[in-house]
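<given_protein>
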Amino acid sequence: MGAGLLIRKGLVVLIFWMWVPMEVMGENGNASVSSSRPSVVNVGALFTFNSVIGRAVKPAVKMAIDDVNSDSTVLSGTNLNIVAHDTNCSGFLGTVEALELMEKDVVAVIGPQSSGIAHVISHVVNELHVPLLSFGATDPTLASLQFRFFLRTTQSDHFQMSAIADLVEHYGWREVIAIFVDDDYGRNGISALGDALAKNRAKISYKAAFTPGASRSDINALLVGVNLMESRVYVVHVNPDSGLTIFKVAKYLGMMNSGYVWITTDWLPSVLDLSELADPDTMDLVQGVIAFRHHTPDSDLKKNFTSRWTSLKSKATPSFNSYALYAYDSVWLLARALDVFFTEGGNVSFSVDPSLHDVNGSALHLTALRIFDEGQKLLGILQRMNFTGLTGQIQFDADKNLIHPAFDILNIGGTGSRKIGYWSNYSGLSVDAPETLYLKPRNTSASNQPLYSVIWPGETTKPPRGWVFPNNGKPLRIAVPYRVSYKEFVSKDKGPLGVKGYCIDVFEAAVNLLPYAVPHTYTLKGDGLRNPSYNDLVNGVSENTYDAAVGDITITTNRTKIVDFTQPFMESGLVVVAPVKETKTSPWAFLRPFTWEMWCVTGGFFLFVGAVVWILEHRENHEFRGPPIQQLRTIFCYTASLTSILTVQQLTSQIEGIESLISSSDPIGYQDGSFAYNYMIGELNIAPSRLKSLKSLEEYASALQLGPKKGGVAAIVDELPYIELFMYTTNCQFRTVGQEFTKSGWGFAFQRDSPLAVDLSTAILQLSESGDLQRIHDKWLSLEVCSAKSSQADATRLSLTSFWGLFLICGIASFFALSIFFCRVCRQYRRYNPEDEEQKVEFPDPPLSRRSKRTLRATSFKELMDFVDKKEDDIKGKLKRKSTDGKRPPSQSSDGQPSSPS
């Protein structure tokens, strides 16, 4: 049981002790019973008569009672008797009046307007089974199951705060300051606002609460403190009777000027709607304010009510507000429910509550309070009613809330207000009236939620940014890492800024793109002897030591949990870098794929097969090329082994990437202050004893050159931008191995929910799209990067130097083969054409001219080529015939003498 509940019950006991019962039961203590259709039914009314709401509600309730009693179609033969009690704007007196009202055997209570009194009286009506129909208690917590007999006949602040949250999201604001009265109405309403904002990834940055009835000086002190804060979006959730004091003080403090955003709940329209002619002094206080008002659709019923209101003589205000309409509909809701109640056989009867008997001679006459016997039945009928009233359709959902909650969004300006749109839980923000949207498919997409233009405080039409730098423009405190290595990214400088580098130039360029000035100062973090811990840098921002951190700060998961980062301005990721060595290739490197034994056997078989082919197949089988599959397999096996041997550059260790590095036991280098240390321990489960901190580029190079066996490291794990710069400065003596095994980027860190993070992200994207980001990069980091991929590609390409020995052997072998071939061909040619030789001996050439000699030589060479082109079978056949003819004896005549030529 909460402390508040104990206080309230104690208050009830105190009130009952002070009470003198005004009505006592009959002598026999029997329950009083009326007929099924009594002539008069008592109905309670509970509100503050002399208040902004009460002055409009009182005539509205009276008008409703008169209308019901004069309407023969409702409660025929039964009149409603209103029993009204004034709560006097006091929680204590209001509770007393509420308890006194319950003595009058009322079947239901219209009211109260106060959420605080509704909380107390709800416990009483729960006990006495009397429905409580509240037209003004908007506290969302009253809808809980605890308050069974509470029925809200207006809209809950749960929906109103959702509407405000959607408006805040519509204009892109991320933080608001809530100004509210510190009671049940204010606290619980603002709590609902916080929940609604959280759904849209926004928040209440500060809750500025003040006590009910606070003096102007108290409000002044509150607003002075609020004005020193960053957010300039204020949501004001107060009582109508004291709300204007907020704006009087705000105007006095200069908080109604350009750059401020003021949003009020329905209390402000409730004040302004009571006057047909706006008060100039009041309107001057609220120029540019956005206000929410309960939406009530235009209808003939509403027009008729408006016309009748103007003719009322007993009214305290020229006009009415939405609470008057809800109170009017509440009376009609009860009348229609009672009509059904009686039709279904219900009786108005009251009985003694055994739990309220006087105990131990107590002076409290609790028996004056009696239970409405069929109150539960009447409550059930009320919850299932469905009719159209002045405020629209009167029907309750499963949570006992009126269906179709909707609000008008007003922009106060000039001598009145201008409607800039609507909100409903059906379609969100819209310029179309909710009742027209109920006929269409539901669409709550943000792209379909427009609003008309707004004139903001200071008579500006551009939506305010919604925040300023805290402490009235105090410069932003920016932490910068005091780097020892890689100073191209960020380093100390003697210039006006005190720092310089690639990261500083990017930040300054982004800030210059913002539509507002950002005064800032840089503070170096570190001692200049070693790189600072970047985790400490980020923690300083989250702990409000700094407002932001600018530098080569990697965006990691753990860091995003405590600060907000901008859009990354440089891509990054962890890579492994290892040493490489130059391998000089030898002219005889082609011999290395096979052992010398293998070469001997292979060479012997090549000679043997070649001899066989030479003897058996030469110049006879032109298709002979050997088995193709076997030759392809031999070729591929040889070239793969040869490629791996002839690689121009090879690693001096077996590290081929992060996997092999993890599986080894060799020491690993990392940059001092880098997040890579925690990453390798926490994510890769590498033992801390294997990790070696390196503070400079010289230490990087020395550790890699020494290697793990001489006190160095097998490889270094660091971010790619650093490694590229390192390899460039060391003339590409080292190479990255494997792929990047993390993907991240560098960003600027800000405190959580800082609007600057969002604005600078947009500016960084603009720098990227315009090419300025690349130009800044080229200014500081325009390097010929040692590309591991291109190096690997070059390494697999074999030069002529590696094969000139092989080419020499092939050339010599080919020369001898050709020499033997042509010698053999010439010998065959002489045998093939012996006549030429004979003619050359027996008949010497006559003297010829030079031209004739050339012709003979050309003819002889042509004949030689024709001979070479002849088939081997043809040549052998002719040579065989010539040999046979040469061995045949000369032919003889018949007389035995040699024949003479004819």
Q: What stands out?
A: The CA atoms of residues 633 and 639 lie 10 Å apart. The radius of gyration is 51 Å.
